[in-house]
Write a structure and sequence with these properties.
The structure is a homodimer of 325-residue chains. With 325 residues, chain A is an alpha/beta fold. The first copy, chain A, has helices spanning 10-20, 33-39, 57-66, 70-75, 84-95, 110-118, 133-144, 155-172, 186-198, 214-221, 244-253, 262-276, 282-292, 314-321, and strands spanning 29-30, 42-47, 77-80, 100-105, 122-126, 147-148, 177-181, 203-209, 256-260, 302-307. In chain A, strand 7, helix 9 (186-198) and strand 8 (203-209) form a beta-alpha-beta unit. The interface between A and B is medium-sized, with 24 and 23 residues.
């Protein structure tokens, strides 16, 4: 963890975009007349569920790995994650011609484990109830000389994630507001850096699940606070405390945090499915839930929304969203 | 039904595209590395599930209605359909500033009925087991002076549907093959007219559900034959016999028909959900099933695929695709 905070600037996000050009998908921006009418705004949906590995995470992982020295890269990279960051680092390693070791819990969903292994990564498992994945990954990295790519707490990761917002704004023009999910805080920190760097008047609103409101509480307290391990379907946002670096950026850049409940997230996933014809995982649907519930408040004219990922299998979707519709 | 067959030409499709410009969505063309590897070809997915009303049907309906005389249009339009054509005609009427009467079965899914009524159409119901919807719609149209917009058996409808393929080819360049679903035959007749008109060497392959192989049987017999009412999840293709006009075009233009079973369609819907992150209704997924099963045969280099629609609610999707994944 850095002790002095390195800033992440609009230029860093621009540099990241240059490095990622032709590597990441330039994901489409979807519009929906129905959604505009419900939200009372012009809503521009940046569909990172169509990104490689199915989520924005590939942007930050590839950018951070690509900034390593040739010597570091040759020794290989490592990460700890049971989710989208695991697949992102595994694919980044393959694309950069190196190897990856991913520390995953023993009980990670088989589909995520298979996808990660499918990109050629070595998987090291640990017991989620007794093990410390960060310590384990750090020990592994030290022992084997690997470069550890953290899921959010790194300026290169944050700058990479910010390219999603940069692309959106380049394509659609200035935004009055930008809404994105908050997990560890890397996506929104990078996105806010891009959005406010380009147009300081853009309001940036983060969305957390009700049970995992660590960033909102931390912003209110003016310091990083921890919440109990969140029970929420939004697995990408089930963190207990914000990152030090991401929080230092977000307390300066965010205009507010909106909370959404699991039932509201389910409704948003169903809306995405039935009306937008796209697949969102729970965390990816939280900004849409903030819009559909009106929690994001009266909105100004043009609102960018980052739909962060779509990694959910049909069985889990059926269990979460199939009944009652 | 026309007694002498009016031809539909590439120029008709081009005229339709000019009329539809700014009215229909120019739907995105998606690519998938995974699908390319599985299919052994460069696959270009034209996503008509993102079209207005959620299916290609709006193209033909709007084009046919838009070609009416001002006097005809002012008296209103009519259609019979329990599916996507109903919503398409209802929306076309609203956009053109006129009224629509849609003949639907009493037991049509409430969501489809609501969507159709939501566009402002009047709904007239009939009993599917005892009523004749064509006779009812024709009587209604005659009585009220309405112009009947048939779901496929009309040159303006066919030319409108062909604009999906025209857009795809304009965006991506010449295709070695084009694959599209076959129901009444309007989509593939229009698409083949566009594709072969531009590049006569393009192979055009239709896809039918196994239980509803009326066009394949008719092509083999060299004349229109009827099959029993198909039992298939692909409700958009549950027809018993091809149209006279569509068959006259398709017997000249199609290079083959591939059949897919309901389980294969389910697998393709699940693939679209989990890998492509898009929602397809069963009929919309049949061309993908033809690719994934290898039924479409060894494919040449560049293959265009029309994913025709995505109108399925989350509950039905869960019942069809949720188990076992």
């Amino acid at each position: 963890m850095p002790t002095s905070v390195p800033p992440v600037t609009l230029d860093d996000v621009r540099d990241a975009a240059a490095r990622l050009k032709g590597i990441v998908h330039r994901t489409p921006v979807l519009r929906s007349r129905t959604l505009d009418a419900l939200a009372g705004a012009e809503v521009l949906l940046k569909c990172e569920n169509f990104q490689r590995v199915g989520a924005f995470k590939f942007r930050g992982a590839y950018h951070a790995a690509g900034r390593l020295t040739p010597g570091q890269l040759a020794r290989g990279i490592a990460a700890y994650s049971s989710g989208n960051h695991a697949q992102a680092v595994a694919l980044a390693a393959r694309e950069l011609g190196t190897t990856a070791v991913i520390v995953m819990p023993q009980d990670a969903p088989p589909s995520k484990r298979e996808a990660t292994a499918g990109y050629g990564a070595e998987i090291v498992t640990y017991d989620r109830y007794t093990g410390d994945r960060v310590a384990l990954a750090e020990a592994l990295a030290a022992e084997r000389g690997l470069a550890l790519i953290p899921p959010y707490e790194h300026p290169d990761v944050i700058a990479g994630q910010g390219t999603a917002a940069l692309e959106l704004i380049e394509e659609t023009g200035p935004l009055d507001a930008l809404i994105a999910p908050v997990g560890g805080g890397g996506l929104i920190a990078g996105s806010a850096t891009a959005a406010k760097g380009l147009h300081p008047g853009t309001r940036v609103i983060g969305v957390e699940p009700e049970a995992g409101d660590d960033t909102r509480r931390s912003l209110e307290a003016g310091r990083r606070v921890a919440v109990p391990v969140p029970r929420t379907i939004a697995d990408g946002q089930a963190l207990t405390t914000p990152g030090e670096l991401t929080f230092s950026l977000n307390r300066r850049l965010l205009d507010g945090i909106v909370l959404v409940g699991d039932d509201e997230i389910r409704d948003a996933m169903r809306f995405a499915f039935e009306r937008l014809k796209i697949v969102l995982e729970p965390s990816g649907a939280t900004p849409l839930a903030a819009l559909l519930t009106g929690r994001a408040g009266p909105l100004p004219g043009r609102v960018g929304v980052i739909l962060s990922g779509g990694n959910i299998d049909a069985g889990r979707f059926a269990r979460l969203c199939g009944a009652g519709s």
